[in-house]
């Protein structure tokens, strides 16, 4: 009798949320918050503060654009998991757990993975949020640019989405949507309230390395949890 399997689905959603929050304090997001806040508010320091309606449109557009890339990745991971539904579940859990341990070790900087580079032309330089569509494109470009330093966390999220028992395209979408929200919601909150949260952001930046190591350790523990779920 497998004592772990009933809890894996619920734990994986919490792990997705935690991975998104961990991504928020990554080197590609947290140090750039003043820049992103500037874009959200109009693009220049002396720009007139946008109206509430304009700000809501920009936030909504940015969120949807930001989530689009990761949700599509999640759909692909879910389809892959569905294709493997007839494979031995214990073997898949062992493979998934081993990959998560690998990504956790990468978060601990035990070794390095080759860096991904932003394609030419997909830069945040010169981008502006002019209404919903402009902020949607801005969010999409942000998501693409983040993949370079979110590789361990994002790959871990995709492995979890693909390895779920009964995985489908929609379970993959749901898992990566939770990951995206875990990253996007605190990022938006800090962008909107940047003037009042400078102290907290400074503390997170100072302790960024410690937070990454805690996240790496949690990844390794979850990988071991999956392996044990297959063996017991």
Question: Would you give an account of this structure?
Answer:
The chain has 232 residues and is mainly α. The protein is 73% helix and 0% strand. The longest helix has 32 residues, at 52-83. It is globular. The protein starts with a helix and ends with a helix.
Low-confidence stretches: 1-6, 116-122
Structural category: mainly alpha
Radius of gyration: 19 Å
Note the beta-strand portion.
under 5%
Largest sheet: none
What shape does the CA trace take?
A: globular
Beginning-to-end CA distance, first to last residue:
8 Å
Quick rundown:
This protein is mostly helical. The protein has helices at residues 5-24, 33-41, 52-83, 89-107, 131-146, 151-162, 169-192, 194-206, 208-231.
Task: Detail the topology: elements first, then pairings.
Blueprint: H1 5-24, H2 33-41, H3 52-83, H4 89-107, H5 131-146, H6 151-162, H7 169-192, H8 194-206, H9 208-231
Helix pairs in contact: 1-6, 1-7, 1-9, 2-7, 3-5, 3-6, 3-7, 4-6, 4-9, 6-7, 7-8
Q: What key attributes describe this structure?
A:
mainly alpha, 232 residues, 73% helix
